[in-house]
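FAQ

Q: What does a record look like?
A: Structure on top, sequence underneath. For example:
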C-alpha cells in the first residue's frame, strides 16, 4: 500500500473551480474522456504473460475464461484526477486552461475515501477508492506476474473444484489492476485518482458514506459524457481545501476570490501563485 500524501492537487479551469466550490462537490468523469488514448487498456500489453503461463493444454478452459472475464468486468469507471505536485507547468498547460486556471489542494485524510482500488460491488462504498497510479513498466509487469502466479497456484492445487472460480477471479483482478497502471510517458504528473466503479445492481437510494449520486450527464464541447457527483458539503471547509494555487497566466482579482472563498466556508484557505514564468 502506498503512503498517501498529506496534500493532493486538482488542476482545472476557473469555470470548473467555481462549480466545485459553489456546489461543494466533485465530479467523477467517464474514463473515456481522459487524455490518454490507452486509458485502462495499458495492462493488455502484458497479457502474453497469461498466455505463456497457461500454455499447456490442461489450462485451455482456464485461459478461455480469464480474458473474457477481464473484459466483462472492466465496466465503466469514472475518475477524478489529482496530483502530488501543486505547481507543474505541464499540468497547467494540459488541465488548467493553458495556465489561466487553478490547482485546488485537497486533504486526503479529510476526504476519507478508502486508500485502495475499488471494485464492482453491490456495496456502494466498496466502489469508490483513492489510488496512486503506477507508471513503472517493471512494476506493472511484476504485478501481472504476481496475479497470474497466485491464481495458477490455486488452479494447480484444486483444479477440479476451483478452475472456473480461479480463472474468473484472475480476470476480475486484471480488470481492477487496469485502473491504476498507465503509460510511463505521463509519469511527471504523479497522479492519484479517485475511482468509482458503478454497477447496475446497487441501490444509491440507500445511505452510503460518500453521498455518491446517480449517474448524470453533461456536454463537453460537441460530446455528451456521463459523471457521478460526490457530495462533500458535510466536510467542506479549509481543512479539506487548505490552499489553492493560481496558474501562471491567472487574471483573477484576489479580493473577489477571497470573498468567494469566504462565502463558501473557506476563509482560512490560503491563496498561492505559481512560480512558473510561463506566459
Amino acid at each position: 500500500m502506498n503512503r498517501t500524501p498529506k496534500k493532493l492537487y486538482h488542476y482545472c479551469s476557473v469555470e470548473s473551480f467555481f462549480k466545485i466550490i459553489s456546489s461543494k462537490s466533485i465530479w467523477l468523469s467517464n474514463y473515456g474522456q481522459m487524455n490518454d488514448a490507452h486509458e485502462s487498456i495499458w495492462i493488455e500489453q502484458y497479457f502474453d504473460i497469461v498466455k505463456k503461463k497457461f500454455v499447456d493444454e490442461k489450462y485451455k478452459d482456464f485461459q478461455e475464461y480469464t480474458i473474457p472475464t477481464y473484459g466483462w468486468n472492466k465496466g465503466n469507471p469514472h475518475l477524478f484526477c489529482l496530483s502530488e505536485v501543486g505547481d507543474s507547468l505541464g499540468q497547467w498547460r494540459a488541465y488548467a486552461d493553458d495556465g489561466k486556471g487553478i490547482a485546488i489542494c485537497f486533504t486526503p485524510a479529510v476526504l476519507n475515501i478508502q486508500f485502495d482500488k475499488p471494485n464492482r460491488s453491490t456495496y456502494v462504498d466498496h466502489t469508490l477508492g483513492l489510488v496512486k497510479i503506477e507508471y513503472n513498466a517493471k512494476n506493472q509487469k511484476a504485478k501481472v506476474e504476481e496475479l497470474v502466479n497466485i491464481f495458477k497456484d490455486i488452479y494447480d492445487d484444486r483444479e477440479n473444484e476451483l478452475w472456473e472460480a480461479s480463472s474468473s477471479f484472475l480476470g476480475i483482478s486484471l480488470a481492477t489492476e487496469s485502473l491504476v497502471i498507465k503509460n510511463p510517458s505521463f509519469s511527471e504528473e504523479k497522479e492519484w485518482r479517485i475511482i468509482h466503479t458503478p454497477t447496475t445492481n446497487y441501490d444509491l437510494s440507500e445511505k452510503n458514506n460518500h453521498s455518491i449520486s446517480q449517474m448524470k450527464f453533461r456536454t463537453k464541447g460537441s460530446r455528451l459524457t456521463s459523471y457521478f457527483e460526490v457530495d462533500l458539503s458535510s466536510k467542506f471547509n479549509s481543512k479539506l481545501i487548505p490552499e489553492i494555487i493560481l496558474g501562471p497566466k491567472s487574471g483573477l482579482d484576489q479580493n473577489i476570490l477571497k470573498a468567494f472563498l469566504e462565502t463558501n466556508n473557506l476563509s482560512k484557505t490560503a491563496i498561492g501563485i505559481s512560480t512558473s514564468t510561463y506566459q
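Q: Is there anything notable about this one?
A: The radius of gyration is 21 Å.
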